[in-house]
Amino acid sequence: MRADSKVTVVVVTRDRLRTLQRSLPRHRGPVILVDNGSTDGTAGFVRRHHPHVQVVENGRNLGAPARNLGVRLARTPYVAFADDDSWWAPGALERAAWLFDAHPRLAVLGARVLVGPEERLDPVSEEMRRSPLGVAADLPGPSVLGFLACGAVVRGDAFLEAGGFDDVVFFFGEEERLALDLAARGWGLAYADDVVAHHHPSPPRDPAARQALAVRNALLTAVLRRPWPVVARRSLDALRQGRAGRRGLLDALPRLRRALARREALPPEVERARKALDRYNL
């Protein structure tokens, strides 16, 4: 199998047809578009103008778990995620496939994400590049315990084995729990500076709501996998963030029961690595 046919691009969208019109033609190889209940004619437009793209209509917004559907449908061993405002640089996915073939423990490859027309390095990519976890002998770059979904390539069977993205967190910050669960199963996650994705996001329409969502999901992820002192610390940090932090805490309450039902302790070595990252990011 050629490297350029080993990776399927899975794009998730919802009511962003105009943005999708700019990004979709840039994708190469097999492409699966998962539509999260759009009402702007996205599915029909893509079927007419991009007949090579496989379109999946959910009929409702499934959040980040919509990507799981794309991974299940992919007929390639590796899957690259993209948002409707992102795409992969020429040659990036061929390079990613080569790295996966050469490193059988690798489950997630975090890319160098360049933001906007000025191609600024995304802060998360900078954090991954400078990860204090070192470089394992059987991985192609710095070990990480997080990633940006729109700049990540995954090994499909490992992704599904770890449950994919979950409906407790739902959307925004959904990567952390999955990263922890992959590491708990012995899989490796690494950053590769020579695998490049482009991201042209629109400015957030409601920054306070976005901050509240980040607080909610960070707390829920801690409840799902981290020790109780970490949960308490994240709760206190949220209270210090003012109105948006308090809103995030309140928004977490309706999902708390499901998070508690799915709570699992991480293996000690994974928790130690996560704590090392916590200290590094203070």
TrEMBL record:
Entry annotated with the keyword Transferase: yes
Q: Which GO terms describe its molecular function?
A: glycosyltransferase activity
Coiled-coil parts of chain: none
Keyword Transferase carried by entry:
yes
- Going by the record, the broad EC class of this enzyme is transferase
Enzyme Commission number(s): 2.4.-.-
Gene3D superfamilies, A to Z: Spore Coat Polysaccharide Biosynthesis Protein SpsA, Chain A
* Alphabetically ordered keywords of this record: Glycosyltransferase, Transferase
Domain Glycosyltransferase 2-like residue range list = 31-130
What is an example of a Pfam family matching this protein? Glycos_transf_2
UniProt-listed InterPro entries: Glyco_trans_2-like (IPR001173), Glycosyltransf_2 (IPR050834), Nucleotide-diphossugar_trans (IPR029044)
Q: Hey, which family's this protein in?
A: Belongs to the glycosyltransferase 2 family.
Protein name (record) = Glycosyltransferase family 2 protein
Q: Which lineage is the organism of this entry classified under, starting from the top rank? A: Bacteria, Bacillati, Actinomycetota, Actinomycetes, Streptosporangiales
